[in-house]
Amino acid sequence: MSNKRPILSVENLTKVFGGVVAVDNVSFTVEEGEIFAVIGPNGAGKSTLFNMITGVLPSSSGNIYFQEKRLNRKKPYQIAQMGITRTFQNLEVFDNMTVIENVMTGAHITMKTNILTAGLRLPSVRNEEVKTMERAMEALEAVGISDLAYEIADRLPYGSQRLLEIARAAISNPKLILLDEPMAGLNSEESRQLVEVILKMREQGMTFLFVEHDMETVMSISDSIVVIDNGVKIGEGTPEEIYQNPQVVAAYLGD
Ligand code: ADP
Ligand code: MG
């Protein structure tokens, strides 16, 4: 029935920090077009998992495949060029830049120019900058904050800065976006806006892998969920299956 194809496969992935096994032999597969959630208590290993997928941290063992290509040992910029971008658990905006300039920095992973050619101010470089600005504006429109394009980024409300980060992650036209606790710190109106943005981008073909503590959001927008506790995968399935998994309920959802 399903014509879905795997986009990301994590196989027996492990990360050891000194004596601590932060991620312990975790495997799962994300399919194209899915909204896939990773849940688990603080310290479960969720951010470490994201850091390995995006090349920020080397894995201790196991494999990561993106569209059948092995990601192990690739650098973060190479992984970004292949089509995986992310946001971080803590807000990472360039405070003293405008919103549109912040979004434009996300395009540089795919731009042909470098600092040297940019310094020469060649017409081709100016052209590319103009195109990047247009794309940045489109990315801001997609997340609903294009009216804030020329504001200084850190003057924006927290929720708008979160949307700015998603625009920056989306401008390079990635195939997969990783979001680390996107709803944290948002008020209910901001959360609702962010959920709408994620659902709209998914409709346009984007795949999302996200870590989130807000169970209402996780259960309402996820196609698949993996539960991690103490580095170990303790459950996997649809929201309905997760709610009915006694081990997951005992360890995490609790009462
Ligand atoms: P989560 O995102 O699920 O809250 P983390 O991935 O941040 O969990 O952390 C998992 C475990 O790994 C924790 O015990 C944490 O203290 C440890 N850890 C994370 N990053 C590092 C690091 N760079 N060096 C040492 N230990 C780390
Ligand atoms: Mg974390």
TrEMBL record:
<dbReference type="GO" id="GO:1903806">
    <property type="term" value="P:L-isoleucine import across plasma membrane"/>
</dbReference>
<dbReference type="GO" id="GO:0005304">
    <property type="term" value="F:L-valine transmembrane transporter activity"/>
</dbReference>
<dbReference type="InterPro" id="IPR003439">
    <property type="entry name" value="ABC_transporter-like_ATP-bd"/>
</dbReference>
<dbReference type="InterPro" id="IPR003593">
    <property type="entry name" value="AAA+_ATPase"/>
</dbReference>
<dbReference type="GO" id="GO:1903805">
    <property type="term" value="P:L-valine import across plasma membrane"/>
</dbReference>
<dbReference type="InterPro" id="IPR051120">
    <property type="entry name" value="ABC_AA/LPS_Transport"/>
</dbReference>
<dbReference type="GO" id="GO:0015188">
    <property type="term" value="F:L-isoleucine transmembrane transporter activity"/>
</dbReference>
<protein>
    <submittedName>
        <fullName>ABC transporter ATP-binding protein</fullName>
    </submittedName>
</protein>
<dbReference type="InterPro" id="IPR027417">
    <property type="entry name" value="P-loop_NTPase"/>
</dbReference>
<dbReference type="GO" id="GO:0005524">
    <property type="term" value="F:ATP binding"/>
</dbReference>
<dbReference type="GO" id="GO:0015808">
    <property type="term" value="P:L-alanine transport"/>
</dbReference>
<keyword id="KW-0813">Transport</keyword>
<keyword id="KW-0067">ATP-binding</keyword>
<dbReference type="GO" id="GO:0016887">
    <property type="term" value="F:ATP hydrolysis activity"/>
</dbReference>
<keyword id="KW-0547">Nucleotide-binding</keyword>
<dbReference type="GO" id="GO:0042941">
    <property type="term" value="P:D-alanine transmembrane transport"/>
</dbReference>
<dbReference type="InterPro" id="IPR032823">
    <property type="entry name" value="BCA_ABC_TP_C"/>
</dbReference>
<dbReference type="Pfam" id="PF12399">
    <property type="entry name" value="BCA_ABC_TP_C"/>
</dbReference>
<dbReference type="GO" id="GO:0005886">
    <property type="term" value="C:plasma membrane"/>
</dbReference>
<dbReference type="GO" id="GO:0015192">
    <property type="term" value="F:L-phenylalanine transmembrane transporter activity"/>
</dbReference>
<dbReference type="Pfam" id="PF00005">
    <property type="entry name" value="ABC_tran"/>
</dbReference>
<feature type="domain" description="ABC transporter">
    <location>
        <begin position="8"/>
        <end position="255"/>
    </location>
</feature>
